[in-house]
């Protein structure tokens, strides 16, 4: 009903324009006939409006409007209303009708083109929308908006090269978050090269990502993974070490390869030193459990359990509790083991149903790390959940 009232508000001035202004200025019989015809159409449309027959009301109002400098804004508003209601085909027809008018001014034509581009975006006709926005980037008043829409298109189509080009043009006057986005676009290209077994190209894209955004955790992870895949374990450890400085919360994404790299180098002492440093810097429970695993292998279950219990006093964690239960089950008495096993099952189910990652921008939760949030489309905003239910 709110949208119908909006239509009524939009067309009330038009009713006055046709019903009063033209009726007053026109003294001929033919003009009076046109005036009465327009007035009848207006009241027919108003009747539809009051009966909440939105489609019939809007169609009636559109049919009574001639496109001129007085009514073009109303056409644009109606097209916008159609698009918001999800009736994109009708919005497209209105805006195409406007553009086809030879009497339309240049400024109104560009406004109509912009709206038609939005229509095509809403309809998923990205190639058509791209052509329109490419034309409008040459117009100063529509340049920024057109570049932003092109950026949306290239992200949807995963055209990362063009996304980078558009972002660089936007960067001078847009928010600094574009640097973060450009770095992620380079990371997308780097990952594509990794999948196609082109490590040199991948390394080049990672360097570009870090040049744009030295704090790009994703680029650091890819760099470490590239070195690891090529057996360069020292270089891999050096890359992963940067995570402690950049974003220690994402260290768990590399913890297994860090462990494996030190083992490949036969450097258990170095591994323990790395893990100790990370824990001191505030690394989460995954790093604590990795350290506990080393204690378990050298000093046994009891020592590992004592270490975890001591850490849980400082950093309570469901994951830590589950590991502690696992260690105690092995050495529990016959009477105590069933209760521990039951508790183990409860805690396991609790962990299974909990999200692992959270978007700091829109609140989206998931069990998978997305570099671009599926909810708000923000890059780099999804982080591991911290605290008792997370890291």
From TrEMBL:
What's an example GO BP annotation here?
A: regulation of lipid biosynthetic process
What GO molecular function annotations does the UniProt record carry, in alphabetical order? iron ion binding
Residues in LapB rubredoxin metal binding domain copies = 357-384
Q: How does it sit in the membrane?
A: Single-pass membrane protein
Q: Answer whether the UniProt record assigns the keyword Cell inner membrane to this protein.
A: yes
Q: Which residues lie on this side of the membrane: Cytoplasmic?
A: 24-391
Note the superkingdom of the native organism.
Answer: Bacteria
SUPFAM superfamilies (UniProt xref)? TPR-like
The entry's Fe cation-binding residues are 359, 362, 373, 376
Q: Where in the cell is it found?
A: Cell inner membrane
Write down a Pfam family by its short name.
Answer: TPR_16
One Gene Ontology CC term in the entry? cytoplasmic side of plasma membrane
Check the record and name the InterPro entries matching this protein. Answer: CellSynth/LPSAsmb/PSIAsmb, LapB, Rubredoxin_2, TPR-like_helical_dom_sf, TPR_rpt
Which keywords fit this entry according to its UniProt record? Cell inner membrane, Cell membrane, Iron, Membrane, Metal-binding, Repeat, TPR repeat, Transmembrane, Transmembrane helix
Q: What role does it play?
A: Modulates cellular lipopolysaccharide (LPS) levels by regulating LpxC, which is involved in lipid A biosynthesis. May act by modulating the proteolytic activity of FtsH towards LpxC. May also coordinate assembly of proteins involved in LPS synthesis at the plasma membrane.
Similarity comment? Belongs to the LapB family.
Protein name listed in UniProt: Lipopolysaccharide assembly protein B
Naturally occurring in which organism (per UniProt): Aliikangiella coralliicola
